[in-house]
Amino acid sequence: MNALEVGPIRTNERVSADMYRLVAELPRLAQTTRPGQFLHVRTARGWDPLLRRPFSPSRVDRENGLVEMVYRVVGRGTELMTQMRADDEIDVLGPRGTTFTLDGKMLMVGGGVGIAPILFAAQQAAAGTATVIIGGRSREELFWRDYFPDTINDLLLTTDDGSVGHHGYAVDLVPALLASGEFDRVLCCGPTILMSKVAAAAYAAGVPCEVSFERRMGCGTGGCYACVCDRKDGTHAKVCQEGPVFDSREVIL
Prior knowledge:
- This protein is an alpha/beta fold.
- The protein folds into 2 domains: 4-96, Elongation Factor Tu (Ef-tu), domain 3 (Beta Barrel); 106-247, Nucleotide-binding domain of ferredoxin-NADP reductase (FNR) module (Rossmann fold, 3-Layer(aba) Sandwich), CATH 3.40.50.80.
- Helices cover 18% and strands 35% of the residues.
- The chain has 6 helices and 16 strands.
- The strands form 3 sheets. The chain has a 7-stranded antiparallel sheet. Strands 11-10-9-8-12-13-16 form a 7-stranded mixed sheet, sandwiched between helices.
- Responsible for channeling the electrons from the oxidation of dihydroorotate from the FMN redox center in the PyrD type B subunit to the ultimate electron acceptor NAD(+).
- Its cofactor is [2Fe-2S] cluster; FAD.
- It holds the Pfam family DHODB_Fe-S_bind.
- Keywords: 2Fe-2S, Electron transport, FAD, Flavoprotein, Iron, Iron-sulfur, Metal-binding, Pyrimidine biosynthesis, Transport.
- This is Dihydroorotate dehydrogenase B (NAD(+)), electron transfer subunit.
């Protein structure tokens, strides 16, 4: 679906040095968006910048029609987004793309802004089915830990600097957890190196793994070919249309 919805912003607050949490009243998107999909957002009024930016929702409140997006300031578009205030209107296309498979016992792994779709998946998963690992550079980047629902089995933290949780990377914890034999699938989103190593660990353990690509996009509808990734069969896939969620065995990471 690629329908337009415009709604008021409820909050747009800084949650770390370079990250913001935006909540908007978007009732249709709150009902129809599923974990793994993305929304294509106009980051300012008017036509400058011309191109929308893709964001993975981090949570939805279906009852109250709210959609949450956590974003990192990385350029002009996201810098303009930080200037949006409560009651300003936000212009959103979506939902777009493929979804995570939420069934069985799941190990969910997220890093950086890739934690957003993992949080959404954890929110929507059945109680007692998800164990989550999230990683960041420091304690400050793991503000996410306060957002995860009580319905997950466990939330494991890792930091590059050792300021909270395991001193190291999210993938460090994956092999031992998969060796327990209790997981039916792995879901992962984050930097490519994280997804590559998590996918390799899942393959070694014989556990299916889904990865969600983060890509710069132009049109977001499959027309411009700006967001392609490589498949292992030698073909290419449009992340905005055939992804962003892929079986890790099908794509080159």
